[in-house]
Amino acid sequence: MPTGLGGAVHTLGRVAAAALAVRALEKRYGRIQALRGIDLEVGEGELVGLLGPNGAGKSTLVKIACGLIRPSGGSATILDRPAGSPAARAALGYLAELFRFPGWYSADEVLSLHQKLAGSSGGEGERAELLELVGLGDARARRVEAMSKGMQQRLGLAQALVGSPRLLLLDEPTSALDPVGRRIVRRLLEELRGRGIGVLLNSHLLSEVERVCDRVVIIQRGEVVAAGRPEELSRPRGVEIELAGGVRSFPDASREDAPALVARLVGEGERVYGVRALAATLEDVYLQAVEGDTS
Ligand SMILES: Nc1ncnc2c1ncn2[C@@H]1O[C@H](COP(=O)(O)OP(=O)(O)OP(=O)(O)O)[C@@H](O)[C@H]1O
Ligand SMILES: [Mg+2]
After folding, report:
1. Is residue 284 part of a domain?
2. What is the Cα–Cα distance from 16 to 19, expressed in whole angstroms?
3. Per the domain annotation, does 288 fall within a domain?
4. What proportion of the chain, given as a percentage, has pLDDT over 70?
5. Does ligand 1 come within 6 angstroms of the Cβ of 54?
6. pLDDT tens digits for 93-102?
7. Contact at 8 Å (CB) between 26 and 71?
8. CB count, 10 Å around CB of 252?
9. Which of 17, 105, 137, 140 is 20 to 30 A from 226, comparing alpha carbons?
């Protein structure tokens, strides 16, 4: 099973700790086995998508990384510090799947509260920068109860960034966002990658994940069932060539075979109007990996 960087990230001879390293992680809730030995790593500046059906164990994994619940076995470390330790907590930002800020707080007050909780000395400058970053620059005085769901979700993202974390754990951060909001978040994630922040993005929006993530890990019933770069997982699915008489399919051909196929068809007197190399989307890969799971 490819798990990407494998152990540690080597940069210029220096071995840097992974932003998040999860090893043989297990979690039982009474009789329910939510995680059954998960290995997963997020490098610095790496964006990893965590996918899986409802109940697969995604939020459980994220909560363990945050130190909100304890694992039953295995380990999770943030920059080499055990999950839940003060050093690990200080290094991460978290946006919970179901969160609610007090309705009477303004955007600015929410961030101010989280600056106190996180011990951030960033002051007004940090708050203004974060609100700008999530597209809420004009809404700093707006009360939470007067915000749309999507605005609250973006405020949640700004909250997760208070104190300049090295690892961001985002549990479905774009579920309430419209296409413009999603684009804002996509750009934000790219910007964070440029700053060397590791991101674990837990989402059901596969096309989003495919566009933005460096690597994806698909889990099902507490186990990793597929992992890799989106383009590695998206296997070729043949070539279609549009001819005068209609479309002809070559299901075993790859993109590299296309020129020879076209040359052959032209040699046979065909007129070629279009050529398409087909690839499985992340959605196809996902559906195949978790086939039959309705839990
Ligand atoms: N506090 C809890 N007590 C008992 N069982 C729990 C608890 N939290 C989660 N579970 C169970 O653990 C399993 C994994 O749940 P989890 O919330 O991690 O899934 P998920 O992948 O985040 O799902 P979703 O996509 O619906 O958010 C499920 O079977 C769930 O019912
Ligand atoms: Mg969840």
Report:
1. no
2. 9
3. no
4. 93
5. yes
6. 999 888 889 9
7. yes
8. 10
9. 17
C-alpha Rg value of the chain to the nearest Å: 22
Read off the pTM. Answer: 0.84
Range list of H helices, 98-178: 107-118, 123-133, 149-160
Could you tell me the distance, in angstroms and rounded to a whole number, from the CA of residue 183 to the centre of ligand 2?
A: 22
**Are residues 272 and 212 located together in one domain of the fold?**
no
Residues 39 and 97 in one domain: yes
Residues 196, 58: one domain? Answer: yes
pLDDT number for residue 1: 41
Verify that 108 and 245 share a domain, yes or no.
no
Q: Please say whether the beta carbons of 239 and 254 come within 8 A.
A: yes
Helix, strand, or coil here: 136? coil
- Tokens matching residue 65: 């990384």
Instruction: Give the CATH number of the domain where residue 119 resides.
Output: 3.40.50.300
Q: Is the CB of 29 under 6 A from ligand 1?
A: yes
134 in Cβ contact with 188 (< 8 Å): yes
For 216, the enclosing helix (H) or strand (E) is: strand 215-220
Q: Which of 204, 151, 203 is nearest to 178 (CA)?
A: 151
Give the pair of three-digit tokens for residue 138.
């004009």
Q: Residue 4 domain-assigned?
A: no
Placement of tokens 């999860």 in the chain: 22
Structure tokens at 209: 């994940």
Identify whether residues 203 and 241 lie together within a single domain.
Answer: no
Task: Compute the distance from residue 58 Cα to the ligand 1 centre, in Å.
Answer: 8
Count of domains for the chain: 2
Q: What is the mean pLDDT of the chain?
A: 89
The residue type at 223: E
Q: Is the CB of 32 under 6 A from ligand 1?
A: yes
Residue 60 near ligand 1, beta carbon < 6 Å: yes
Query: Pick from 115, 176, 106, 164: which is nearest to 136 by CA?
Result: 106
